[in-house]
Amino acid sequence: MLSLKSGKSEKISGEKLISAVGVQCNTEGLGLEKIGVKIDRGAIVVDGHGRTNIDGVWAIGDVAGPPMLAHKAEHEAVITVETIAGQKVHGLDKTKIPGCTYCEPQVASVGLTEVKAKESGREIKVGRFPFVGNGKAIALGESDGLVKTIFDAKTGELLGAHMVGAEVTELIQGFVIAMNLETTEEELIHTIFPHPTLSETMKESVLDAYGRALNI
User: Which CATH class, in words, describes the domain spanning 95-209?
Assistant: First the structure.
């Protein structure tokens, strides 16, 4: 029996139930308030190097706020430890952290969505390419999927990439590397992708953003 926000109740039936209650920062009971550590919506406020507003207090991982991902925490730890050791390192850029959902089909993304890119006031170009246009996907029997890429129309900067389909949690890293290297659409277009591979959907999406897709 479900209790709806309207106050009504609804009975549903099914074979399985998924409980997704979300994740919260485990910061209560640590005495952080007593020493003045700044907290925002349950998360410890840090800069890109793990520093809090109190000297000598550092934080990484889920307690330092979203995205609450293992790979974010690991990278954050390295940055923080190297900073404490006196090394000069680049701070964490949350816009370049990939997110992956291991469902079927898989989902992966990095950077801005189309909506967020538009809200930033940029003129954008958007490319889309379906898995059904990819020979490897068809051969694998995994032709359900899509790759979407978002570029700054003026500079060619890759602002975001979003993927649904087979093995996209592996493929997304190609776009993550491209964003970290500040790769433009021209460089991606002139990059040779091996054939037959699922990665060809990535290049086709870039091509489509500029009206140059080959296989659709």
Answer: alpha beta
